[in-house]
Amino acid sequence: MSDTESVGRSYDALREKYLGERNRRLRSEGNDQYVAVDHPFIGDVEDPYVSEPLERAPISEDLDVVVVGGGFSGLLAATSLIREGVTDVRIVEKGSDVGGTWYWNRYPGCRCDVEAYSYLPLIEDHGEMPSERYARAPEILDHARRIARQTGIYDKALLQTGVSGAAWDEARGRWIVTTDRGDELRARFLCMASGILSRPKLPGILGAGDFKGHTFHTSRWDYVYTKGDNTGGLTDLQDKRVAIIGTGASAVQAIPHLGEWCQQLYVVQRTPAAVDDRENAPTDPDWWNSQEPGWWERRALNFEGFVNLIPQEVDLIQDGWTRNWGKMTEAMYKGKTPEEMGALRQQADYEKMEAMRTRIAGIVIDPDTAEALKPYFNWMCKRPLFVDNYFETYNRPNVNLIDTKGRGLDRITETGIMFDGTEYPVDCIIYASGFEVASPPDRTAGFDMRGVGGMTLSDYWTDGRRSLHGMLVHNFPNMAIISGLKQSGITWNITFMNRRQAEHYAALVKRCLDRGVNFDVTDAAEQGWLEVLADKAQKDDTFFRECTPGYYNNEGKNERDSIFLSNYGGGPFEYMDVLRCWIGNDAAVERDLALTPAV
Questions:
Q1: Looking at the structure, do residues 29 and 128 belong to the same domain, yes or no?
Q2: Where does the pLDDT of residue 170 fall: very low under 50, low under 70, confident under 90, or very high at 90 and above?
Q3: What is the tally of structural domains in the chain?
Q4: What end-to-end distance do the CA atoms of the chain give, in Å?
Q5: 189 and 209 in one domain?
Q6: Spatial CA neighbour of 201 closest among 352, 410, 42, 27
Q7: Would 338 be classed as within a structural domain?
Q8: In this structure, are 25 and 96 located in the same domain?
Q9: pTM (predicted TM-score)
């Protein structure tokens, strides 16, 4: 018997367990099981963090570029444009400040899960030393503000302003961008940087609108109700019975704080989370000050190498991400054939997850609760989480796990939540149900772009997405989508790819301004990119198809449209090379773009 056969037989039973857990979580409606966050039962979904409502007169102006979104994608786009000498720029942001994800997400415990030294974009240019390796949300928001302040972006930003429409005016050769404040911005170029985690979603649970108690989503945390802040101190929950629905990234960070302060906490789980310790530590000032120029790029590239199974000579990161990926990469490359490599990598994955399940059994006192918390899926089927004291929280007498075994709640009543015929009375329901991930920009931005002939982007993509490099779209001249994920490169450290795409678009804008031209992607260029995507597509999609349902695999429905199977299959490094070579090749640019004189 070969090593591969031995490995396969040893883990057949575990694989069947994984598949069984996956199958009972499949739902026929896929992503349609979720509803929009603007439902009235969720409370204040606009902006609970506004300290002073902004009053200003409508603006009417001509300019070079409008950037939609003030998160890191938008900040990187604006910064890249400014560095190219394109300064006639407006950022339009519906929040009362920049920051995007880190403006909206202020729940207790919220931090970055990729180390701050690699995650925080432009930290080498505009940064201050992070206080900790995994920085808290307020510190990350401060970094976004620092970028905006030091680059002059605040002077170019329209805050507390939502874009209501953007239409291409063929006669004027400009995008007419309108806002909910009556602004009309006439821009030659339009950069959609509304991000991938900007539209919260809710589970479509029967009776949710009937609940008479208090509700909010983790991305609109109500500190007026709970008191406290990102560090905890939720003192007004001491006499409250609270249910939190979800056990994803937001929930597992908030649950230890809720468990500490609530009179009673019910954690509603459909699928267990794969959680390791964070291993956080204060930043060493001597180490920080010893970094040589270019350190951020080297560190980010090192991280990307590990998570893309590319052997690295040294581990600059040395955290749960790189150690686990490093072990799997080392195991995989012991194989002599693709089949052996795949089997050995899977063996390493099984061993990793079995160690996690053993750790849970050693922490959680109640054996039934411990078993319910054990994740039975491959390590990368859901985003790995690194949170301290998560499993220990279930040893508190006031914390109860409601494990729905993939079903979700039966319904919500006027006074509580119901599962398997039992009602659990609660005063407050917190939805930790996450965000729509990689939705088209008309959903993330809240409006639909109209291109040549008045066609909307959603209509153009009725039969599937089409683009060049996942960024540029035929009949939508001078427009780019930053951080769209699909049909482009994808990374676990999303700000790294955002920077590359922002620099790419800024270089294209500068090129067109210098030459006095507008651009439109040709139909042939889009078709060519679709062919490249098909050629580079992952040939074996078994891993994601067999994963437990989630946003990685499009909730187990139409997996080929998931973020991992619809992106550039050659990997992020190759994708970035494609961008670099294309923008530097006059012949390629003129082949793929229809260039017309600017009006």
A1: no
A2: very high
A3: 2
A4: 72
A5: no
A6: 42
A7: no
A8: no
A9: 0.91
Task: Report whether 248 contacts 384 (CB < 8 A).
Answer: no
State the Cα–Cα distance between residues 61 and 182, nearest whole angstrom: 12
Place of tokens 């249910």: 243
- Is residue 336, in this structure, part of any structural domain at all? no
Helices (H), 63-174: 72-83, 101-104, 116-119, 123-126, 137-150
Range of the domain at 167: 60-197+437-536+569-597
- 236 and 185 part of one domain: no
Query: Is residue 188 a part of any domain in this protein?
Result: yes
Q: What is the CATH number of the domain that holds 414?
A: 3.50.50.60
CB–CB of 64/187 below 8 Å?
A: yes
CA 443, CA 334: separation in Å to the nearest integer? 45
Integer Cα distance of 225 and 283 in angstroms: 34
Are residues 352 and 215 part of one domain?
Answer: yes
Cα 245 from Cα 551, distance rounded (Å)? 17
Lowest average pLDDT, out of 35-44, 76-85, 245-254, goes to 35-44
The burial of 555, by beta-carbon neighbours within 10 Å (0-12 exposed, 13-18 middle, 19 or more buried), is given as buried
Residues 427 and 498 in one domain: no
CB burial of residue 173 (10 Å; 0-12, 13-18, 19+): middle
Is residue 487 within 8 Å of residue 438, measured between CB atoms? no
Task: Report helix angle 137-150 to 72-83, nearest 10.
Answer: 20
From 481, 484, 499, 485, select the one nearest 121 (Cα to Cα). 499
Whose CA is closest to 274, among 599, 18, 487? 18
Burial class (CB in 10 A: 0-12, 13-18, 19+), 583: middle
Residue 260 vs residues 212, 265, 386, 389: alpha-carbon distances, Å:
25, 9, 19, 11
- Please answer whether residues 206 and 412 qualify as being in contact, where contact means their C-beta atoms are separated by less than 8 angstroms: yes
Q: What is the pLDDT of residue 53?
A: 87
* C-beta separation of 39 from 208 below 8 A: yes
3-class DSSP string for 437-468: CCCCHHHHCCCCEECHHHCEHHHHCCCCCCCE
Residue 497, token pair as written in the block: 């790819």
Is residue 137 domain-shared with residue 160, that is, in the same domain? yes
Which SS3 state, helix, strand or coil, does residue 164 take?
strand
3-state secondary structure 229-287: ECCECCHHHCCCEEEEECCCHHHHHHHHHHHHHCCEEEEEECCCCCEECCCCCECCHHH
More confident residue, 462 or 258: 258
Please list, residue by residue across 497-514, b when 16 or more beta carbons sit within 10 angstroms of its beta carbon and e when fewer do.
Answer: bbbbbbbbbbbbbbbbbe
> HSE on the CB side for 327, CA within 13 Å?
15
Residue 77's nearest CA partner among 543, 496, 499, 552 is 499
Cα separation, 543 vs 536, in Å, equals 17
Calpha distance 384→325 (Å, rounded)? 11
Q: What's the rounded Cα separation, in Å, for the pair 186 and 165?
A: 12
Is 301 contained in some domain?
A: no
Domain final residue, candidates 435, 462, 487: 435
Residue 493 has pLDDT above 50, yes or no: yes
Quickly tell me which residue has 């990685």 as its tokens. 552
Tens-digit pLDDT profile for residues 267-282: 999 999 999 999 899 9
Shared domain for 99 and 190, answered yes or no, is yes
pLDDT band at 3 (very low <50, low <70, confident <90, very high): very low
